[in-house]
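Sequence decides. Consider this:

===
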Amino acid sequence: MADQRAQLKQLFTGRADVVVADRYIFEWYRKDPSVALQVNVEQEVTYHKIFSPGNFKAVFRDDVVCEAFNHGLKLLKEKGRYDEIIQSYGVNNPAF
C-alpha cells in the first residue's frame, strides 16, 4: 500500500488484521498527529519478523560526495546524534 498512513488507519480501525511494513516507518507514522486524530494509535501491536533483515547501502557516482557522506555519518555516530535519530522513531529495540 503506497499510503502508509492509510495502512495504519486500517489496522487500528480493525479493517485489517495484519500489515506488512518497515518497523521504523510504521512507528514514524504512528506518531503522526494526523493519524492520531483519526484512530487510537496507542493500541498494542505485535511485531513478527517475516523477512530476513536487508543490508542497504548508499551508492554514489562521485567519490567526493561518497567521502563527504561517510565523514558526516562518522561524525553523527561519534557525537551520538545517529542514536538520537534512531530513537526518534520510537523503536525500543532497533535490532528487532
The two ends are 23 Å apart (CA to CA). Helices lie at 4-12, 23-30, 33-36, 63-78, 81-87.
